Amino acid sequence: EEQDRLLRHQPDQPQNPKVLRIAIIGAPNAGKSTLSNQLLGRKVFPVSQKVHTTRCKARGVVTYEDTQLIILDTPGLTSPFKAKRHKLDEAMLTDPWDSMKHADLVLVLVDVSDHWTRNCLSKEVLKCLSRFPQIPSVLVLNKVDLLKKKFILLELITELTEGIVNGKKLEVRSAFKHNSSSSAKSPLQITQAFPPENRAHEPRCLQETDQAQEGSSLDSNGDMRASESSLVTEEAQGPKRCGPRDLKNMKGWPCFQEIFMLAALRGEEVDTLKRYLLMQAKPGPWEFHSGVLTSQSPQEICDNIIREKILEYLPLEVPYGVIQVTEMWEEGPSGELLIMQNLLVPRKSHMMMLIGKGGKVISRIAQEAGQDLMNVFLCDVHLKLKVEVKS
Fold first, then answer.
1. Residue closest to 329 by CA, chosen among 384, 265, 264
2. CB neighbour list of residue 376: distance below 8 Å, 6 or more residues apart
3. How confident is the model at residue 254 (pLDDT cuts 50, 70, 90)?
4. Which helix (H) or strand (E) holds 175?
């Protein structure tokens, strides 16, 4: 009722409100929902190792002083063939495009730890960017903490941007000294040399430095230490504005305005990205009351978190066929939330897998989902799950 009231309430905006609508797009499992949760400061979007955890677009809301960020967490961009294979709704194909129509800025998330997909943007992502070239876009390289050889980031940036950022050409300069005695295990921190507000007056560059600022250390079996490794922008030939392009031979997008590098699961550098987003906000009316964290109803949050756990613990395609039916949603005598949900599966074999030996799997799902729901709703939650074969 409280969430319903806040969503229906007129936004309590200040005198000169600012707003920014952000679409986060990328391949399935790139970490879009994890990044959304980090920006919000609380877990409201489902996250799992399996693809297509997010089934529809949902909005998260960050309100800070006079500024409101509206985060459009979207399903991973996928092809009709893959949508059919995973029995996905039509919305899975249309929602990312719908989100782009309403966005003021688009974050393109790439999982750099996935060596199968990291060297180029997917055709679906490129189609999306090409169809909406007027929307400013930012490249976000995620999971950089999982990358052992950090110098690979230089190659990835060049490929994913086609060597152009903010209308300027990237020049890659690297000089490595072999040092067999060096352990070179300290992590790289990749920062931008000048904050966004100073970029009109300073040459823009992306430079790798370690925390001690003594020259970068690269984790590559201890045999290389970087004396210099940087990306510097020079004026590119040609227009800064991008129009629809022939995508057949494209691997990257030459119209990104900025590049950020994150370890979203651990929250590293997310605050830097958040500050940048707040600075990009333009004058405009707020969409939500400042007390709203997400446009989802509590029931939708509950369904998503339970489905996240089912995806984690069931093999292969099995979890995609589970139908969730909430049979009870009540407030208990001490203010606790009492939830009972029925999980309908197509086959008896699926039911046995979901229950597990001695009921261990379903008990674990209920326990972990209940804990997550307590963290979201900030109250005690008693969750019961039943499993049935759908008739």
1. 384
2. 42, 43, 44, 301, 305
3. very high
4. strand 168-178
